[in-house]
Specification:
By secondary structure, the protein is mainly β. It has one domain: Porin. It has 5 helices and 18 strands.
């Protein structure tokens, strides 16, 4: 409990330091292809990229189309043909309500890092161009849109598709997307988080005793329906999402690949078992499902309270040295939690908080069912249009883990974003865990200076 209060005091103390420093306005950053297409200021949809304003969230929900009266703003789309313009013999091959954007739908992002890791053999390192990404998206006619993100380069290697989906946008009340995406079940998106130094633990934390590496991030494959409807008496609104996905290993699995120790050996054994059981993408016939419900209103700022439930199935390798002992559906697990977001009326301050519960149930009764609770609190302040600090506190409590694994530990992350230009961002960040944290890549201490370019 003492550690918990230390984290709370640190969070409140950070807010007390930054708030009196002359808050002016929110900063801005953009995905350049959308800004070029619609001719709008980047602050229309973003605070600091990739965080979204409420207008930006509506833009995303409508399939990357401008909501409300601004629907007609921007370029005129390029039609793919209509019956009136097509010879009679070819009319059947033309679809009059389909068009494509008339300008480029793609943007590039480049990241260069300088990193200090006190516990590594090489403590100080320039990474050069550590990552190059291609982001693209736009509308396809009246009801369809698409979005994709391809990691062209990540630590010197081609990583492939991060997200890629097609979306059906009938109205704000009902939208459907199919493909590879981050499920809306997650409390706060790892793709659109402001503090870039570390991912949210509640989206990637693995339950090691049950060999469960499921994660909401970086992506999952499946189908999801979502939408927004007015609240009672027109007060506020409800946002919902339901989905059906494969339930694949997430970011922790990738982080532990090639690492030393029992966790790295477990990942190596599971990779072999997955390969012999149908592949990492889908090794059983059971699909995972989830539902989320949020209520948002206005209370001296934008307030959103939400909760979710997730039910999934994962495999269990009885003998790490023998892939034939792999049980395709050896673990029935669930994730559920509640979360809160508050954005100050003038937009100068944002507070986020969540509690998420992890519960796994193994087919082997001789093993105890492990569980975990991840608590998170975050504060973001907008001191000037070009200066945005943030601080995050996370605590993990576990039960049923192996002897020697800590029953609780904490992680702290701090970032400072400095805009050097409309599409040039300098990120200074540091993360550290308390002395009881496990010796895993997710909890290593390091500091980083990054230069992020978008064009």
């Amino acid at each position: 409990m003492t550690g918990t209060w230390r984290g709370y005091v640190a969070t409140v103390g950070f807010a007390a330091v930054v708030l009196p420093m002359g808050l002016v306005s929110r900063a801005e950053k953009r995905v350049p292809s959308f800004a070029r297409r619609y001719g709008l200021s980047c602050s229309t949809c973003h605070t600091v990229f990739p965080a979204l304003t409420e207008y930006g969230r509506l833009f995303r929900a409508k399939g990357y189309r401008l909501p409300g009266a601004d629907m007609e703003r921007g370029e005129r789309p390029l039609p793919l043909g209509s019956p009136a313009e097509t010879p009679e013999g070819r009319r059947g091959s033309q679809i009059p309500f389909i068009d494509i954007p008339a300008t480029s739908v793609a943007s590039f992002q480049v990241l260069s890092d300088f990193r200090y890791s006190p516990n590594e053999d090489v403590q100080v390192e320039f990474t050069g161009i550590s990552s190059v990404g291609l982001i693209f998206g736009g509308g396809m006619g009246q009801y369809f849109s698409f979005f994709g993100n391809v990691a062209l380069l990540e630590d010197g290697e081609f990583e492939g598709i991060d997200r890629l989906f097609v979306q059906y946008n009938r109205s704000l009340a009902l939208n459907v997307r199919v493909g590879q995406f981050e499920p809306r079940a997650i409390a706060f998106s790892n793709h659109r988080r402001m503090l870039r130094i570390t991912p949210y633990l509640n989206g990637v934390f693995p339950i090691l005793p049950s060999q469960n590496f499921f994660g909401f991030s970086p992506n999952q494959k499946g189908i999801e329906a979502f939408g927004r409807v007015p609240g009672p008496g027109g007060l506020g609104e409800f946002a919902y999402a339901i989905g059906l996905i494969n339930g694949e290993p997430g970011g922790a699995f990738e982080a532990l690949e090639g690492s030393e120790g029992p966790a790295g050996e477990l990942v190596e054994g599971l990779e072999e078992a997955y390969a012999e059981s149908g592949g990492e993408f889908d090794f059983n016939n059971q699909k995972d499902y989830y539902a989320r419900l949020n209520y948002g209103t206005w209370l001296r700022g934008a307030v959103s309270v939400g909760g979710f439930y997730y039910r999934g199935t994962s495999g269990f390798l009885q003998d790490p040295d023998d892939p034939d002992t792999f049980l395709r559906a050896g673990n029935q697990f669930n994730r559920w939690g509640v979360d809160l977001r508050w954005e100050q009326e003038n937009g100068y301050l944002s507070l986020l908080g969540s509690v998420q519960f992890f519960n796994d149930h193994l087919e082997r009764p001789q093993l105890s069912d492990p569980s975990a609770i991840v608590t998170m609190g975050e504060v973001q302040a907008y001191l000037h249009p070009w200066l945005v600090p943030g601080f995050r506190y996370e605590r993990v409590d576990v039960r049923g883990f192996p002897a020697g694994f800590p029953s609780s530990f904490e992680r702290y992350s701090a970032d400072l974003l400095v805009l050097l230009g409309s599409n040039i961002m300098l990120m200074l960040g540091t993360t550290w865990s308390d002395d009881s944290a496990p010796a895993l890549p997710l909890f290593e201490d390091f500091s980083r200076i990054s230069l992020h370019l978008a064009f």
